[in-house]
Amino acid sequence: MKNSERMRERYLRDALPLRLAGLAADLGRVASSARHATGSAAAAAMLEESQYLIEWTAAAAPAELAEELVNLQALLALWRKAWPEAQHSPLQRSILAVQAKQWADQVLRHVTEDVR
Predict the structure, then answer these.
(1) 0.70 exceeded by pTM
(2) Of 34-43, 81-90, 99-108, the least confident
(3) What's the helix, strand, coil split of the chain in %, to 5?
(4) 82: alpha, beta or left? (left if phi > 0; alpha if psi -120 to 50)
(5) Nearest to residue 7, comparing CAs of 50, 40, 63?
(6) What is d(CA 98, CA 70) in angstroms, rounded to the nearest whole number?
(7) Contact 70, 58 (CB under 8 A)
(8) Taking the mean position of all CA atoms in its chain, how far away is CA 110?
(9) Per CATH, which fold does 4-115 belong to?
């Protein structure tokens, strides 16, 4: 990922709920990009970026949330590894799109729970 250190510094200035919202937005972009064969490169980049966002967020999160984020990071790593082949399959792209949307919603629930 280009300029990861600059991005990290900027990202870490935000409070945990805003970081989680950023992660959810990235996952939403994964879902959107994965739906279309022309979005394969964008999906790969967002998978990588989402892993970084989790790495930078998990340390500041409560233990239960940190564990959930680390598990999500592992799933993203599996998708990144499989993506060079999976991107050519409409079925695999659809599966990633659905999963990424579910992950985004799951992360957003933590934002709304923290705000209440």
Answers:
(1) yes
(2) 34-43
(3) 85, 0, 15
(4) alpha
(5) 50
(6) 20
(7) yes
(8) 14
(9) Four Helix Bundle (Hemerythrin (Met), subunit A) (1.20.120)
